[in-house]
Amino acid sequence: MMEELALHIMDILQNSLAAGANEIVLDIEEDEERDTLKIKVEDDGRGMGPDELSKVQDPFYTTKRKSHVGLGIPMFKWVAEHCDGHFSMESELGRGTRLEASFRMSHIDRPPMGDLSGTLLSLVVANPGVRFVIRYRGRGEFVFDSKDVKEILGDVPFTFPEVLRFLREYVEKGLGEVRRAI
Fold first, then answer.
1. What are the chain's domains?
2. Distance separating alpha carbons of residues 46 and 116, to the nearest angstrom
3. What tens digit of pLDDT does each residue of 75-124 get?
4. What is the phi/psi pair of residue 142, to 5°?
5. What is the pLDDT of residue 60?
6. Long-range CB contacts (< 8 A, 24+ apart) of 113-117?
7. What is the CA angle 37-41-47, rounded to 5?
């Protein structure tokens, strides 16, 4: 089992990238009053038909050629449901996929978030042609849109050392201001 939610998020976002997504929206919401943590991912990738959509939640199904099992989505679903939450997926061929998982924040078995900023930055930097919109709500709201950053940078790549340093500080500060210690 993946020990951090950030690793589950990375797996889900990599699925979106493998599906040819040009835009991926990650929405994370902490609601202390309701004791819930919600994670939503929506992409504009190739999507799935009803048959494949039901199969991807089976741990013995995979679309990867070198792998015999596809544990990412089934594990994420299991963790959410085990932590008094829920899991749902919707998809349409040619239109993309939407995934939502919720967790009871105070559940003793809920994995910690982990290095969310590092996880997100590695995906954003490694996939400059993809628009990532990241919203984190809790004690406020932090929004990161890679399209806005690209417009400001112009021809300067995300991999430029000063840009990497700025992005890491910006994302860590933004998430830190919103997140409570989870």
1. 5-178 (3.30.565.10)
2. 26
3. 999 999 999 999 999 999 999 999 999 999 999 999 999 999 999 999 99
4. -125, 130
5. 61
6. 113/4, 113/5, 113/6, 113/179, 113/182, 114/3, 114/4, 114/5, 114/6, 114/7, 115/4, 115/6, 116/5, 116/6, 116/9, 116/28, 116/175, 117/168, 117/171, 117/172, 117/175
7. 150
